[in-house]
């Protein structure tokens, strides 16, 4: 059994939606990022890679590589899922927290769980998506961006 944790941040910039858990969430801004900026998937990737002690998302998909410009973050997550299988593990469960004042995440959480479960080949009940504000403190509190945390448990097959 191995545990992993991931953390990511993206700033808000021009746009009209956010990609979160591969779900398009309507918003009056977008993410500033090299890829599609899916901060939730990026944190999950780092948790999975961390559990395997295989570095972080930037090591596997360098932000300096134009190949990943505007990339759908499902590409990154599918790669991490493949690595789990190659190392003889299955994903036991995933617990995630998004930190932002806006948009409200809770109405979209079930869709994110469903979508991530399909990508990762597990049940939605094995995935938890939570959200909190930072009580208007710090960069998330000022509405400058969003942070995501993820914790995973891998089980030996
Ligand atoms: N972006 C967010 C932030 C919070 N929520 C939900 O609201 C609850 C209360 O948030 P506090 O920061 O005041 O504790 C939180 O537990 C979430 O259910 C949300 O959906 N989206
Ligand atoms: C995902 C990658 C892909 O180049 O770029 P970004 O979309 O900027 O996201 P970040 O969370 O900074 O992770 C680094 C990169 O791997």
Automatic annotation (TrEMBL):
Domain 2-C-methyl-D-erythritol 2,4-cyclodiphosphate synthase: start-end pairs: 1-154
- Record: residues binding a divalent metal cation: 8, 10, 42
Q: Which PANTHER family match?
A: 2-C-METHYL-D-ERYTHRITOL 2,4-CYCLODIPHOSPHATE SYNTHASE, CHLOROPLASTIC (PTHR43181:SF1)
The pathway that the record names for this protein is: Isoprenoid biosynthesis; isopentenyl diphosphate biosynthesis via DXP pathway; isopentenyl diphosphate from 1-deoxy-D-xylulose 5-phosphate: step 4/6
Its organism's taxonomic lineage begins at: Bacteria, Pseudomonadati, Pseudomonadota, Gammaproteobacteria, Lysobacterales
What CDD domains does the record tag this protein with?
MECDP_synthase (cd00554)
* Amino acids binding 4-CDP-2-C-methyl-D-erythritol 2-phosphate: 8-10, 34-35, 56-58, 132-135, 139, 142
Quote the function comment for this protein: Involved in the biosynthesis of isopentenyl diphosphate (IPP) and dimethylallyl diphosphate (DMAPP), two major building blocks of isoprenoid compounds. Catalyzes the conversion of 4-diphosphocytidyl-2-C-methyl-D-erythritol 2-phosphate (CDP-ME2P) to 2-C-methyl-D-erythritol 2,4-cyclodiphosphate (ME-CPP) with a corresponding release of cytidine 5-monophosphate (CMP).
Q: How would you summarize the oligomeric state and partners of this protein?
A: Homotrimer.
Record-stated family: Belongs to the IspF family.
What cofactor is this protein dependent on? a divalent metal cation
Q: Where is this site: Transition state stabilizer?
A: 34, 133
Tell whether Nuclease is among the UniProt keywords: no
Query: Which reaction is catalysed here?
Result: 4-CDP-2-C-methyl-D-erythritol 2-phosphate = 2-C-methyl-D-erythritol 2,4-cyclic diphosphate + CMP
Its protein name is 2-C-methyl-D-erythritol 2,4-cyclodiphosphate synthase
Q: Which Pfam families match?
A: YgbB
Q: Which domain of life is it from?
A: Bacteria
């Amino acid at each position: 059994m191995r545990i992993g944790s991931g953390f990511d941040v993206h700033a808000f910039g021009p746009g009209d939606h956010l990609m979160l858990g591969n779900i398009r969430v309507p918003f009056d801004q977008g993410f500033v990022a090299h890829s599609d900026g899916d901060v939730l998937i990026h944190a999950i990737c780092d948790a999975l890679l961390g559990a395997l002690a295989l570095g972080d998302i930037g090591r596997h998909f360098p932000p300096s590589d134009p190949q990943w410009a505007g990339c759908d973050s499902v590409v990154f997550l599918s790669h991490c899922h493949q690595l789990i299988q190659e190392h003889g593990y299955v994903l036991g469960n995933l617990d995630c927290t998004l930190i932002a004042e806006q948009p409200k995440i809770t109405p979209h959480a079930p869709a994110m769980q469903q979508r991530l479960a399909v990508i990762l080949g597990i049940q939605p009940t094995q995935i938890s998506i939570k959200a909190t504000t930072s009580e208007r403190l710090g960069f998330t509190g000022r509405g400058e961006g969003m942070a995501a945390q993820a914790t995973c448990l891998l089980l030996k097959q």
